[in-house]
Amino acid sequence: MKQPIKWIIKQPNQIDWDHELFIVKQTLLSLTAEQRKSAEYWATGELTAKISSLLYELAEKYQLGTPSCARMLGYYHAAINDTCVMSW
User: Fold this and answer.
1) SS3 for the chain, per residue?
2) Could you tell me how far CA 54 lies from the centroid of its own chain?
3) Which residues contact 53 (CB under 8 A, 6 or more apart)?
């Protein structure tokens, strides 16, 4: 059941960067004010700090105990670590 993942990753010199930039510019032009505000919020500051704060708020809202909160934060930071390993 363990199947290896076959990644299809283009070499940077095989990417049409002008076309990619065009897509980004078109997307920016189509954003609503609310979407722009949301994008600016998530694009500024340290993302892990924002999400950690959100996790603490959720733990308080759902009355998670310290062990459950610690477990949740552990899973989150492990996922961040895995993401960094995969993308950098």
Assistant:
1) CCCCCCCCCCCHHHCCHHHHHHHHHHHHHHCCHHHHHHHHHHHCCCHHHHHHHHHHHHHHHCCCCHHHHHHHHHHHHHHHHHHHHHHC
2) 14
3) none
- C-alpha distances in Å from residue 66, one per residue of 70, 73, 77: 6, 10, 16
d(CA 19, CA 27): 12
pLDDT digits (tens, 9 = 90+) for 39-87: 999 889 888 899 999 999 999 999 999 999 999 999 999 999 998 888 8
Q: Is the pTM here over 0.70, yes or no? A: no
Q: Which two tokens stand for residue 51?
A: 């999400």
Chain-centre distance for alpha carbon 24: 18
The answer to whether the beta carbons of residues 76 and 51 sit under 8 Å apart is: yes
As given in the structure block, the two tokens for residue 8 are: 């299809």
